[in-house]
Amino acid sequence: MSLDVPAALLERAEQGDIDDAEFVECVRTSLPYAWEVVSRVAGELQAGAEEYADNRVPPPDEVARGQLLRALASDAIRGGLERHFGVKLAFQNCHRVAAFPLSAVGGETYTRYISPRAQLLNQSPELRNC
């Protein structure tokens, strides 16, 4: 299960759409490590990182790794985080998450970061099973 959904939020979801703020709060409380990584790279970008900001530090344990994978593998969660922080997220492996300005999507730096070449060059034996 990806998220710990409070009963009241689940009831509202069963009745119809919920707003992004409620969803993002559920993500924040359910996946605190993923939230910390994404909020940090988004904050670094907004504080003036050159073209993008990315996380190169592996998760401290498997629980944290699982949170990051669940957050970025879900279109809904990833999209909610992107809308909340106003960034485009890119994900290369079990921990390498980058935040780009929305205006960078389709540009040279973003395209290079998400390329198959970049994915191959970012591999290492110690990350084989991440």
Automatic annotation (TrEMBL):
Q: Which domain of life is it from?
A: Bacteria
Pfam families, per the entry: KH_NucS_shadow (PF20704)
Which named protein is this? DUF222 domain-containing protein
| Originating species | Nocardia rhizosphaerihabitans
